[in-house]
Amino acid sequence: MSESGPQWTDEDPPCEVLFTGHPDPIVATDPAGRLLRANPAFERLVGCPVEELRGDSSLRFAHPDDASRVDAGLERAAAGDTDSYDVRGLDAHGSPLLVRLTHVPVGAPGAVTGVFTIARDISERAAAERALADSERRYRGLFEGSGPGIAITDVDGRFIEANPAFLAMIGYAQEELRELDFLGVTHPDDREANRREIAALLAGERPWFVLEKRYLRKDGDVIWARVSVSLVRDEHGRPLHVAATAEDITAARCAEERLHRSESLRRLAGELALIGGWSLDATDHHQEWSEEIFRVLDHTGDAEPTFEEALRLYPALDRERLEAAIATCLEDGTPFDLELEVVTFAGRRIPVRAIGEADRDTRGRIRGIIGAFQDISDLRRASRAAEEAARRLTTTLESMTDAFFTLDRDWRFTFVNQRAAELLRRDRADLLGRTIWEEFPDAVGGAVEAAFARAMQGEGTQVVEEYDYPPLGACFRIHTYPSDQGLAVYFRDVTSERASRLALEERETVLRRQADLLDAAQDAILVRDVSHRITYWNRSAERIYGYPAEEALGADIRELLFEDPFGFDAATAAVFEHGHWSGELAQRNRAGDPVTVHGRWTLVQDDAGRPEAVLAINTDVTEQKRVEQQLLRAQRMESLGTLAGGIAHDLNNVLSPVLLATELLQLEERTAEQAALVDTIASSARRGADLVNQVLSFARGAEGERTPIELATLLADIRTIVRDTFPKDIRLTLEVPDQLGMLLGDSTQMQQVLLNLAVNARDAMPDGGELSITASEVTLDDQYVAAMPEAEPGEYFLIEIEDEGTGMPPEVRDRVFEPFFTTKPHGVGTGLGLSTAAAIVRSHGGSLHVYSEVDRGSRFRLYLPVARDEPTARRPSRPAPDLPRGDGETVLVVDDEAAVREMTCQTLRTHGYHTLEAADGAEAVARYAEHRDRIAIVLTDMMMPVMDGPATIRALRNLDPEVRVIGASGLHGNGKVALAARAGVEHFLPKPYSVRGLLDLLADILGADR
Questions:
Q1: Crossing angle (nearest 10°) for helices 747-763 and 672-700
Q2: What is the average pLDDT score of the chain?
Q3: Between these two residues, 195 and 271, which has the higher pLDDT value?
Q4: What gap in Å lies between CA 772 and CA 930, rounded to an integer?
Q5: Minimal CA–CA distance to 843: which of 873, 820, 864?
Q6: Number of neighbouring beta carbons within 10 Å of residue 687
Q7: Residue 250 to residue 237: CA distance in whole angstroms
Q8: What crossing angle do the helices spanning 975-982 and 949-959 adopt, rounded to 10°?
Q9: pLDDT band (50, 70, 90) for residue 714
Q10: Buried b (16+ CB within 10 A) or exposed e, 757-792
Q11: 682: left (phi over 0), alpha (psi -120 to 50) or beta
């Protein structure tokens, strides 16, 4: 080998063994393609030793047409690429070869020292593949070009492939057929037999079978086929495919059926018409009869009668006529056709028809007579019946109420019945033979002429429903029937019928208008029969119940609208007993929601008084009932408010002396321990007063006093309440900035709002969770408040209360602030918590919003305006000034509570006032009348027995229009305070009042007099 070519040493024996022992020819070349070395297989392939080839170009063995491909392959290998391809080659003798060359470069890319080329002889395999392809083409050609239809199915009967002949036979495309099985295209009457044969074939009971069956073509036609079916198995003997060859035998089967039918018809015709055949030999007068003749002549013997015996069956005159006809026919071949009478072997006398003609041999000589013999008794009867039918038809046509006439193909009258003559106002004799268009020229060019022309042209029966013919002043309905002779025309006068129809249409129009009115009614109007099936259902019924008319009609009303049929059954019993019923019913709509209706039912009876239907007019009162429930709840809440107001009044009267007494005690010198006790009493009393005010605010909607509120302190109080009262599995997170502005509002109402929202969050987390409350200050600009119509731009507190509860669907979230709306069970909630909170927030100039998703919790966002007079709101508290004192003025104290009255008087006397007391209004008026010159001012309770506060004030005004009055009440917004205000009272003191509150108000009123 060359130093520059591929090489290995003796130390590489595996490579040498692989090279020399490889079954495929291998040759080593240098990068230029010169042959360096070859293995024995290559020498055998090319037919000469390698020593003779060394140094030659490897292209020497390539076919001239493929030398360029080999050269390109060697160049790619010299560049470092492995390549493989099929080419033609030549051995040393020039014989052609087909080889697959594989070039393998030796050395690193860019430094290839040589190329190994493996040449695998694939001539035999290529020849085998060509033979296989030729065989496949021959098979495919036989399959595609076969005259009989060939189809292949799987073992389940589904088509795999079919040749064009089979596809043309059954009319399906190849793709359509693959969606079917063999039973799908088999006639239903042949499927069971076909299925049995296939089952036997698959079970191995037979190797093949042949049957005749009918196929159903795609276009619906039926064809007959002779089908040969065999089973194709795989190399293991398992069923693989079913192959069927089908030959269309429809024509042959049809021919057989026609022949069979022809023979059957001939036999049946002979039997039905009693026609037989006979023959007579001219030489010996031997005769032959068919079976029909024996039956006609009532012959029951075994021996055939002779010609002479047969002639004796005819009466003399008919026998002579027959004998003469037979003799003439035998003499000169004159045929005959006679109607005769014959007496049968049973003695029956019947009319017959005998027909005969000469039977000649091949030379034309007469060798006898052949003929037919027929019993014409039925024909005679049919003829007489036809004559009678014609007579009856003429009578019928004359007596029928419809007018009738016939026209020939030249439009001439051929028959006119009496009724037609009357309607056409013509004499029949004047019409017969005349053309219709000459007699009735006004009909030319109209609907009748067009209909008659279509019928005459073979387009079938023509009908003109209404044809006005002004010359006769009538309207006709005309039916025209074509016939071979021309036209048959039936017509009748429908003038009055049309008038009735028009009247009926007008009535139907009225009824439709009435139906439209029923549909326009707001009430559901429905009719049901006695079996409770709905027969009428107006549009309001569709609207109220949600069922369209087509779905409701025919349905059982109990199943459609009633969950509990008890009320329906009771109402039905009442309406059948009394004829009418009215009342409320609980029903349901299509969505399953409850519907309450006020029904007015009426029993509809037929002319005999039997129940026929029930008319129901149902008014939807669902919303009305809901409003009534809300009204009842509101009245109940108002009653609770009144009760709470009375209790609050009594509590205020109880607390007033306690507060006054504790404040007086605080003015005295006490030990530290005693002072603490007095402070505790005072704090508890004030707390009680605050609770009373909270009850009043909730129950009566009293407008509380707006004062600056430390929002952080308010939220801290809420945290304490939640921590002390909520379940322990609810975790509270409170986030409040260190510096928050002041909120101007009613602290009690704000506390109520926050507690309502916290309780709502608690109820949404029955299994516990996290409750988060955050507060911050935000600025709402014009763009933001555009989405909140109730808000204005400015500085706001934002309080967010968020829970991890069940959340709310959109339909609940949209109604959550509605009064009395609640999702809690009946008796658990009133539905006022969130609506009250929203109302309080709006009254404070804020807004309340909710964001919620099912199973993801809810978040309420509360916006409240920051107090604008912030410096004033945040000014530090100053030491309280000394209590103002009186200057000996006399105050008339009027109160029905002795404790309140005594403590008030003692407080006033302690601080420089004189006092007079009155236990009710009447006593106050008397005391004022007695001491009016001394009394500087009157302090009166607004709620007292006998004479209440407003009445007392009016009485005092009558005595002294300039009297000064202070009204005291524990109900800030009750009606009595309003009455006192209308009477001119300008000063009110809320109960329980403090010492400072009382003394400050007196000082303000009386200060101008000092």
A1: 70
A2: 81
A3: 195
A4: 66
A5: 864
A6: 11
A7: 36
A8: 10
A9: confident
A10: bbebbbbbbeeebebbbebeeeebeeeebeeeeebe
A11: alpha
Are residues 25 and 41 in contact, defined by beta-carbon separation less than 8 angstroms?
A: yes
Cα–Cα dist 971/941, whole Å: 11
Residues forming a β-bridge with 279: 288, 370
- Give the residue ranges of DSSP H helices in 47-112: 67-78
pTM: 0.32
Asked whether 986 and 967 are in contact (CB, 8 A), the reply is no
Exposed/middle/buried for residue 1010 (C-beta within 10 Å: 0-12, 13-18, 19+)? exposed
Collect all residues with Cβ–Cβ distance below 8 Å to 485 and sequence separation of at least 6: 406, 408, 409, 414
Rounded Cα distance, 865 and 792, in Å:
9
Burial 514-543 (b: 16+ CB within 10 A, else e): eeeebeeeebbbbbbeeebebebbbbbbbe
> Taking Cα atoms as reference points, which of 939, 1008, 995, 948 lies closest to residue 975?
948
Is residue 365 a contact partner of residue 285, using CB atoms and an 8 Å limit?
no
- Strand 914-918 relative to strand 890-894, pairing: parallel
pLDDT tens-digit readout, 868-895: 654 444 444 444 567 888 889 999 999 9
Question: Residue 379 gets which letter from DSSP?
Answer: H
Token pair of 275, please? 């026609």
Q: How confident is the model at residue 4 (pLDDT cuts 50, 70, 90)?
A: very low
pLDDT of res. 889: 92
How are strands ordered across the β-sheet holding 534-537? 534-537, 524-529, 611-620, 594-605, 580-588
Segments in 203-315 forming alpha helices (H)? 250-273, 291-296, 307-311
Q: So what's the pLDDT on residue 905?
A: 92
Tokens for 32, please give them. 């230029």
Tallying the residues shown for the chain, one arrives at 1010
* Bridge partner residues of 37 (DSSP): 28
C-alpha span between 602 and 609 (Å, rounded) = 14
Per-residue H/E/C for 620-643:
ECHHHHHHHHHHHHHHHHHHHHHH
> Please, are residues 359 and 281 in contact by the beta-carbon 8 Å criterion?
no
Query: In this predicted model, what pLDDT tens digit does every residue of 757-766 receive, in sequence order?
Result: 888 889 889 8
